[in-house]
Known about the structure:
Strand content: under 5%
Shape: globular
Structural class: mainly alpha
Radius of gyration: 17 Å
Largest sheet: none
Order of helices and strands: HHHHHHHHH
Number of helices: 9
Amino acid sequence: xxxxxxxxxxxxxxxxxxxxxxxxxxxxxxxxxxxxxxxxxxxxxxxxxxxxxxxxxxxxxxxxxxxxxxxxxxxxxxxxxxxxxxxxxxxxxxxxxxxxxxxxxxxxxxxxxxxxxxxxxxxxxxxxxxxxxxxxxxxxxxxxxxxxxxxxxxxxxxxxxxxxxxxxxxxxxxxxxxxxxxxxxxx
Length: 187
């Protein structure tokens, strides 16, 4: 249960950081991988490590190739590996939830382009003000926002048009992972 709660917390942090900064930090991916190893050692995972590792490696290779053609972000590629490992017995649920969340996110970005940009700016300002209160746990949780300023490229107006808008798909991946956590813990 503790492993799944830690997974949920990390995924929430990853989703927020990706929404705000279009970044998925290596520290979170490493934490997820360590969490998966711990869950295997203590018997919390589904038990078929070889099958999960083969699936994760296959997905990594495919998404890495997609990344080379700028069809998926590098952060999304590295986040997929631990999520595939955790989703082992709930792979269809993970794919389904990630797809639905990604579709909703894309529609929201297309339909509400300027409003999403304004909302991200407001959230970033609130987080920046909270960080000034010197709360170490918050600083750790919001690692990406420590490294990104309000004037960063993530907050510039997109002149390429709404259909070229970057979408933080790490949010959809985090939603898929949270759906797996929900299935494991509550079902």
